[in-house]
Amino acid sequence: MIDVSVIGCGNMGGALITGLAQAGNYDITAYDVDPDAFEAIEEYADRTTTDLEDVRDSAVVVLAVKPDIVPLVLEDLDLRAEQTLVTIAAGVSTDVVASETDASVVRVMPNLAARTRNMAAAVSWAEPDENVKAMLSDLGEFVVVDEDLMDVATALNGSGPAFVFYLIGAMQQRAAEEGLDADDARVLAAQTFKGAAETVLRSEESIEDLIDAVCSPGGTTIEGMEVLWDSSVESDVGDALSAARRRSAELAEEAEK
User: Fold this and answer.
1) Per-residue pLDDT reduced to its tens digit, 64-96
2) Rounded distance, CA 90 to CA 68, Å?
3) Is the CATH code 3.40.50.720 the one for domain 2-148?
4) 0.85 exceeded by the pTM?
5) Cα-based distances in Å from 166 to 172, 189, 239
6) Which of 104, 109, 236, 240 yields a CA-CA distance of 20 to 30 A from 170?
7) Where in the chain is the domain with CATH 1.10.3730.10?
């Protein structure tokens, strides 16, 4: 049993609490200054508290607050060297956090799919932390990256779900306009993304080869792909990712001032 405290029960903190509870083997304390924040996660946390003292003995403490709140929490959070502090705040470097605590600091960029244990996460650490490794594995897939790549990881897997939701919505809307029931279109669009993603994860084939496997000469798929190949959608999606990366870098600069 791993003793975990999550500071901040907003969307991301709540997703982590929900996923860890479903995984089992975690004793979860949820902290927030606002008692109303517990409504969505109360059934998943072993305890809820508005007293920061209640999280100070956990083996792993997850700092799941907005970047500008991090310094305020660190002022009152007194952890020991044998504990681990996980920060998920976009743009807040390990050095900034480590200067304010005795605990080992691990930086993670998760995403909301932690809620269903399908999370994609990037992690940066000086040394692998077995408790954090277990948590990330139980919540989905993770990769280890150098911290100077955290801005692009933030854009890719942190902001990426919103980009995917947008694309699912576009496919759902057009299918509904073509006559399909909107709810049916939502299911088919979402499951298509899920299945395609699983195929990529389980295959060693390139993305191009996987596209070719779906396209038959003169068939429906290649007709649609011709529209995409002739459009700017590839660069537009890339530009969205780059914009998110730049904002992550700006947040880092603001946090270090």
Assistant:
1) 998 888 888 998 888 999 999 999 988 888 988
2) 10
3) yes
4) yes
5) 10, 11, 15
6) 109
7) 160-246
